[in-house]
Automatic annotation (TrEMBL), chain A:
Residues 134-178 form the SKP1 component dimerisation domain. Pfam families: Skp1, Skp1_POZ. Keywords: Ubl conjugation pathway. It comes from the Eukaryota. Probable essential component of SCF (SKP1-CUL1-F-box protein) E3 ubiquitin-protein ligase complexes, which mediate the ubiquitination and subsequent proteasomal degradation of target proteins. Regulates cell proliferation during embryonic and larval development. SMART domains: Skp1. Residues 166-201 are annotated as: Disordered. The lineage of its organism: Eukaryota, Metazoa, Ecdysozoa, Nematoda, Chromadorea. One of its GO terms (biological process) is ubiquitin-dependent protein catabolic process. This is Skp1-related protein. Residues 169-194 have a biased composition (Basic and acidic residues).
TrEMBL record, chain B:
Signal peptide: none annotated. This is F-box domain-containing protein. Residues 2-47 form the F-box domain. PROSITE patterns: FBOX.
Length: 201, 313
C-alpha cells in the first residue's frame, strides 16, 4: 500500500508517553549538589561515560546518592555545568589535526569566564579532567589572549614562568623528595664541608 | 593579573600555545628551556612557507599559511637606536652575527621544521658575511643594484624559484631553476634564453630585439631550445619603431586561440614572489596557437614590447 492510500488514524497526542527528561545529581568536593540534564552531560566525555556505565534509571537518580566529583569544588563545578547546560545538544568538535583550529569565544562564554585567574585556572583543570573539548578550547583561548603584545619579560610575569635556574632547583627538590636518602647524603656532605673536611670518605 | 602556565595540564598548555600569534610563541619560547621544549611539541600544520628577510641591518622572519595569510614572527635590527616592541628587538652591532644565527636556529627549531618551503629575501648590496647560511632554502629573492649572483649559485644551488631584482651578469648560472624571474634582465636575457631548462621564465627589461625573438621562436619550434618551458615572458626595453606584431606572427603557421581547447590555470601554484597581476588575460584571442615539430602545442602573443609563450602540457 502506498503512503497516499494508507488509512488516516486520529491520534490522541496526550496519550503518547513522553520520555521524561533525566537530571543527574552530582556533588562537588565541598559537598555542593548540582542537577544536570542528560543532554548537558553529553558535553563531557568523562561524565557521559560514567553515567552510561552506571546505567541509572530515573528512580536511581532520585534515590541513590549524588555522584561525587572528588577533585572539583562547587564554585568551579557550577561554572562547568552552566556552560554544559547552555551548550547542550551542540556538536562536539573533533580535532583530527587536518584543519587548523580557529577558536572564537562566544558572548555567553566570555561572560561566564569573566572571573579571576584563580577560578579560570580551576575551570581549565576541570574542563580537562571532565574532557569537555569546547570548554577547554575557549578557556585556553582566553589564557592565550593574555599574551597579546607582550615582550618575553612581560610574558614571564603574566604566565609566572620560572627561569631556567628556578626550574633546575625545582627539579632537584623533586628528586630529593623522591629519594630522601639523597637528601641525607647531601646534608651530610654540606655539614662535613662546613667542618672543614676535604673528603666525604 | 597572572596565571601559572606551566602548572596547567599538558593538553591545555598545547591548546594555549596553539592559540597564540607566532610572535608571541617566539617570545614565550625564549623565556626558558622548558618553554622552548613545550613550544617545540606544537605542530604548526598551517605553515606552508618560512621567509627570512635580510635587509640592511634588519633580519625579519615571517610565515605564510595555507589560507594565504602572511604572519610576522620576529625582527631584529643592529646598531641603530630604534624603539623596540614586543616583536622588534634592537641589538648591538658587535653581536650581529651571533644574534642572527641564534634567531634563525631558534625559528628553525620551532617553526621551520613544519614548513615545506623556505624563502630567503636578500638585499645583496650589504655585507653578506653577516648573512648566515640557511637550511632548506628553495626560494630566493635577491634585491640590489648591480648584483653578483655568485652568492646564490654557490650557497643555494638547489633553488626551485629565484627572482633577481637588479642588473646582473651570469644569469645563466640558474638555467635549471624551475621558476626564474629577472626584473632587469638586460644583456643577460640572451644567455638565459639559450640555456633555460626550467618551466617558468620571466625576462623583464631585456635588451633583445624582435629579431631575436623571431629567432627564438624558430628554434623552439625545432625543439632546440627551452624544451621544458611552460610559460615564457619577455619584456623588451626597446622595440623597433616599425615593428608590426601581425607581421611577426604571420611568419609562423598559427591558428586561432581556442579557449575551449586550451585549458587555463597556467599561473596556478606560482610562487607568490612572482607577480603576474599586471599581465594581460592570457585567455583571449590575442594569442595564436602554433605547434612544435614534435607535436607539442603552444600559444603565443606578441604585443609592442611584450612576448608571451605558453606551452601546453
Amino acid at each position: 500500500m502506498s503512503v497516499e492510500n494508507a488509512p488516516v488514524v486520529d491520534v490522541d497526542e496526550a496519550a503518547i508517553p513522553v520520555e521524561k527528561k533525566m537530571y543527574y545529581r552530582f556533588e562537588s568536593n565541598d559537598k555542593k549538589e548540582f542537577r544536570v540534564s542528560e543532554l548537558a552531560i553529553q558535553q563531557s566525555e568523562t561524565l557521559n561515560r560514567l553515567v552510561e556505565a552506571m546505567g541509572y534509571t530515573s528512580e536511581d537518580v532520585e534515590n541513590k546518592p549524588a555522584i561525587a566529583i572528588e577533585n572539583i569544588d562547587g564554585k568551579t563545578l557550577k561554572l562547568v555545568f552552566q556552560w554544559c547546560e547552555h551548550h547542550k545538544g551542540e556538536a562536539i568538535p573533533v580535532d583530527d589535526g587536518s584543519v587548523p583550529k580557529i577558536v572564537e569565544i562566544p558572548e555567553f562564554d566570555a561572560k561566564l569566564m569573566d572571573i579571576d585567574n584563580g577560578l579560570l585556572f580551576k575551570l581549565i583543570w576541570a574542563a580537562d579532567y571532565l574532557n569537555i573539548v569546547q570548554l577547554l578550547n575557549v578557556s585556553c583561548k582566553k589564557v592565550a589572549n593574555m599574551a597579546q603584545g607582550k615582550t618575553p619579560a612581560q610574558l614571564r610575569r603574566v604566565y609566572l614562568l620560572p627561569s631556567d635556574e628556578e626550574d633546575e632547583a625545582a627539579k632537584r627538590a623533586a628528586q630529593e623528595a623522591q629519594d630522601p636518602r639523597a637528601r641525607e647524603v647531601e646534608e651530610e656532605f654540606e655539614e662535613r664541608k662546613r667542618q672543614g673536611g676535604n673528603s666525604f670518605f | 593579573m597572572s596565571i601559572p602556565l606551566v602548572r596547567f595540564p599538558l593538553l591545555a598548555i598545547d591548546e594555549i600555545l596553539r592559540n597564540m600569534q607566532y610572535s608571541e610563541i617566539f617570545n614565550i619560547s625564549v623565556c626558558s628551556q622548558r618553554m622552548h621544549i613545550l613550544v617545540r611539541r606544537i605542530k604548526f600544520k598551517q605553515i606552508v612557507k618560512m621567509r627570512y628577510v635580510f635587509k640592511a641591518k634588519v633580519l625579519q622572519v615571517e610565515v605564510d599559511e595555507h589560507n594565504g595569510t602572511r604572519q610576522f614572527i620576529v625582527a631584529t635590527s643592529f646598531g641603530r637606536v630604534r624603539d623596540t616592541t614586543n616583536c622588534y628587538f634592537a641589538h648591538n652591532s658587535n653581536s650581529e652575527g651571533m644574534v642572527k644565527r641564534s634567531v634563525i636556529d631558534h625559528c628553525f627549531g620551532v617553526f621551520q621544521r613544519h614548513a615545506p618551503i623556505v624563502q630567503l629575501q636578500l638585499v645583496v648590496d650589504q655585507d653578506l658575511g653577516f648573512v648566515p647560511l640557511l637550511e632548506g632554502v628553495k626560494e630566493m629573492y635577491m634585491l640590489g643594484q648591480g648584483m653578483s649572483v655568485e652568492y646564490a649559485s654557490i650557497f643555494y644551488p638547489d633553488l626551485n624559484c629565484l627572482r633577481i631584482n637588479g642588473t646582473c651578469k651570469d644569469g645563466d648560472r640558474f638555467s635549471g631553476v624551475d621558476y626564474l624571474f629577472f626584473d632587469r634582465a638586460g644583456n643577460t636575457a640572451n644567455a638565459v634564453l639559450q640555456t633555460f631548462t626550467g618551466r617558468y621564465l620571466f625576462l623583464y627589461e631585456s635588451r633583445r630585439s624582435t629579431k631575436d625573438i623571431l629567432q627564438f621562436c624558430r628554434r623552439w619550434k625545432r625543439n632546440e631550445i627551452c624544451q621544458n618551458v611552460r610559460f615564457l615572458y619577455i619584456d623588451l626595453i626597446d622595440s623597433s619603431p616599425d615593428f608590426d606584431p601581425e607581421r611577426f606572427l604571420a611568419q609562423f603557421e598559427t591558428s586561432e586561440w581556442d579557449p575551449n581547447v586550451r585549458p587555463g590555470g597556467v599561473f596556478d601554484g606560482l610562487p607568490a614572489m612572482i607577480d603576474v597581476d599586471k599581465f594581460p588575460d592570457v585567455n583571449t584571442d590575442r594569442f595564436r596557437d602554433f605547434q612544435r615539430n614534435d607535436g607539442k602545442w603552444a600559444s603565443l602573443c606578441m604585443l609592442d614590447c611584450q612576448f608571451f609563450l605558453i606551452a601546453w602540457d
